[in-house]
Task: structure prediction
Amino acid sequence: MSSHTAETRLGLIGKLLLDGEMTCETGLHIGAGKGSLDLGGADNPVVKDAFGRPYVPGSSLRGKLRSLLEQSSGLITPADLIYLSRRRGQEVRIHQTDEPGDEVCLLFGRNPGRTERASGETVESVAATPARLTVYDAPLELDSITEPMRENLDDELTEVKSENAIDRLTAQASARTLERVPAGAKFRVRLVLDILCAEDKELAARVAEGLRLLEDDALGGGGSRGSGRVKFTGWKAAWRSRAYYTAGTAEAIVLEAGTTAQLQAGILAADFAEKLS
Result:
């Protein structure tokens, strides 16, 4: 739990910008939905921008970080989960409480109102918390798709992975295809942490924790079948104080790290919080 209390006053102190590179160590599939299905294409296409280039939606990366931090904090019991959606077959449950020091809610925000817990209890949430963490869409670095890679791809920038589901009684195979961004592709990622009070500086460590958890988990679909393993490198942390926006002062590079482990070590250092002022 954070040291936030119900009396903690909020006002912009500054923003911590984390820029890095995300490399696909296995093929990556973040689905575009059925609305973009092309005739003769893969059953499950990846999401693409207006120029037809795959990208990683900020919502996908942010949602995965939230899920992993909820799990690592032991916050996925029915008493801690509320329904975002009750649509049959598409239920969505997330963690949310009114506890002032709840770091997950501080990072990702919470909305007041009547909600139903996964345990079946209806509760009235009264706390409204602005989200501190913003995660931007991550564009593909086109140069990371090299010519030798393109020679073995099914499309200019993506591959198609064929899978079979086997009926346990008849042994009949049901084929399906999955479009993936190939291993070796790189994306530019940016996360921004708003520091609205001195206590918010503690939240940077949770962001680093979530990134490390993700490196040993999977992003996107098909994770249990080998897709979605990623690694982050080339981190740069820049601090933009309120004076950066009001008086045009320069930003300060407070940390550079080659790996996520090094980023976490730098954030956990005793003097890191002093740099965010």
Residues 14-58+130-275 form one domain. The chain has a mean pLDDT of 91. The CA atoms of residues 107 and 132 lie 5 Å apart. The chain is about 20% helix and 30% strand.
